[in-house]
Design a protein that fits this description.
Blueprint (H helix, E strand, L loop, with lengths): L2 E4 L9 H4 L3 H5 L8 E5 L1 H9 L4 E7 L8 H4 L6 E5 L1 H4 L11 E6 L6 H5 L4 E6 L4 H13 L4 E4 L9 H6 L8 E4 L6 H5 L3 E5 L6 E2 L3 H5 L3 E6 L7 H5 L3 E4 L11 H12 L6
Parallel strand pairs: 1-4, 3-4, 6-7, 6-11, 7-8, 9-11, 9-12, 10-12
Antiparallel strand pairs: 2-5, 3-5
Length: 271
């Protein structure tokens, strides 16, 4: 049986994780072993549970106890479940943006890039992509369109931030990802990957260039919205690749561009 607790005191410290702690505080960079994240919506929570993440507590609308969240509650019987009517929950910061259910979960230790990339052939590197919506959308595209892993530089938004995980529809729990310790590509190149900078440069090759399909291992590098990749990063890559544009359009949103890039560069030449 679940430990269901009706909310009567919004100042209760048990609710800090949902109402008062920032994403940075949840991340807990100083003590990463104590880090938490918030999974939002039954689908995202379920995929996190499937991936082995440990729940700490839940916050939900009363009506979902016997509704949309019922199958989730059946899987998390040993943690407190805080509940209230929707009009009460909207007093908690941001709760009205959810689909009726939040779950605080423990983070897992991060794996190294070399471990994650072992035996992989197509990976993504996000360089300073700070918008969590873009990070979530890119990871969803990567999982759906043939990429094997996602690496993020230190300037990127965390894939477990509430909005990023929600936008990804929980695919952040279905594909390997980790942060790179620095912004260098040396470790990736040492693993045998040819690096591909997505950039609109005069010396760019087309995304359909047959040389790309012949490469056994590709690392596709995408930069932040607006500024794109730094020239030094582009110069250090093996290829610079562009998506052909029409009707005078000069660029795509980075998440939209990722879908095109991943679909095309997941293909390999027949041997």
């Amino acid at each position: 049986m679940n430990n269901i607790i009706e909310i009567t005191d919004f100042n209760a410290p048990e609710l800090d994780v949902y109402a008062r702690l920032t994403e940075a505080q949840l991340f807990n960079k100083e003590f990463p072993e104590k880090g938490l994240f918030i999974a939002e919506s039954p689908r995202v929570i379920e995929r996190a549970l499937d991936a082995g993440y440990e729940p700490v507590s839940c916050l939900m609308e009363k009506r979902h106890i016997d509704g949309e969240g019922k199958h989730i509650l059946a899987r998390i019987k040993d943690i407190p479940v805080y509940c209230a009517e929707l009009e009460v929950l909207t007093q908690l910061t941001g709760f009205k943006l959810t689909r009726g259910m939040l779950c605080a979960m423990k983070r897992k230790p991060q794996q190294s890039a070399s471990k994650i990339c072992k035996d992989k052939s197509r990976i993504v590197i996000l360089d300073k992509v700070m918008n969590p919506t873009n990070v979530g959308a890119i990871i969803r595209c990567a999982a759906a369109l043939g990429m094997d892993a996602v690496l993020l530089t230190q300037g990127c938004s965390d894939p477990l931030y509430r909005r990023a995980a929600r936008v990804s529809m929980g695919t952040v729990f279905q594909i390997d990802w980790t942060f790179l310790p620095d912004d260098s590509l040396d470790e990736i190149k040492a693993l045998g990957f040819k690096t591909v900078a997505m950039a609109l440069k005069d010396n760019s090759i087309s995304i359909s260039d047959p040389r790309l399909k012949k490469e056994d291992k590709l690392a596709i590098i995408m930069g932040t919205e607006g500024d794109g990749l730094a020239d030094t990063t582009i110069d250090n890559c093996d290829y610079t690749v562009k998506i052909p544009m029409y009707h005078g359009v000069d660029s795509l949103n980075v998440a939209a561009a990722s879908a095109v890039a991943f679909y095309e560069m997941s293909k390999k030449a027949s041997k």
